[in-house]
Amino acid sequence: MNLAEKYGDDRWPVLEKTCDCGANIMVKGKKFREVTNHAWDAEARLKDMDEEGIDIQVLSPIPVTFSYWSDPEAGMELARFQNDFIASLVREHPKRFIGLGTVPLQDSAAAIKEMERAVDELGLKGLQIGSNVNGNNLDDESLEPFFEAANEQQVPLFVHPWETLGRERLPRHNFMYMVGMPSETALAAGSIIMSGMLDTYTDLKICFAHGGGSLPYLLPRMDKGWEVWPQIRKTEKPPSHYAKLLYYDSLVYDENNLQFMIDRFGVEQIIAGSDYPFLLREAPSGKVVDRLSILNDTEKRQIHGLNALEFLNLDIEQFL
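That's the 2-amino-3-carboxymuconate-6-semialdehyde decarboxylase sequence above. Prediction below.
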């Protein structure tokens, strides 16, 4: 939908088709990203999934569409449009797709309302949210009602970086994707970990994209800070304890990095990630898992799919 035209504001992402098999996402009149029809065509995705041995794929919105900067009512309009579309694909292919929704997180009341509709009416199994909301970290007090509701309703949350910190310094070398996003993800995860939220909301399930970004490497430094600055403590235990309660995708490309994640968090907390269908994707998804010889077959099955089903509160029998 073209909200830029409707509201006279070119900050809204707009899809401009270039052919039947491709399009440009336009923001502020400039090309933000080229996409192929794999971004909207279920049959194109299913073909790739079959070729790469992927039984089930979890669908989620492209982060640029979060649009948290917008008026909440307009943000709700875009969120509902995307949630309806994703739910329609899941209905058409219930054995192949699982859907995550999106919500206008700039307003907690509106976000809770759309979360309830997405889960209860549309049957989506969780939400994807951004790593910050208009520069506010995820432990901002304005977001507490949303996390409280997600905890009470046991709605899993997948956090993807967007509007990265220091983005004014990142255009050269495409550093936004290579440095900014991992740093942003670590900040988002650190905000959750240090906030005390996981002591309060014990049923909250949160997964961080891209292996948690730089978080695994930073945890010892966070533990040291927690130790030497007691005045900042809001948690009962050090950060590394809470990091093991969160989930992370496996998109780190390298066996040594994946092994490091397993050592930090445990096999049960890692879910196969892909970044499909974009350039930084792993093809096929889970390739690095298969290459890690230290994993046995049971552990590989956990990361390839069983952990995702557990995270999303699903039973594998639903897909047989």
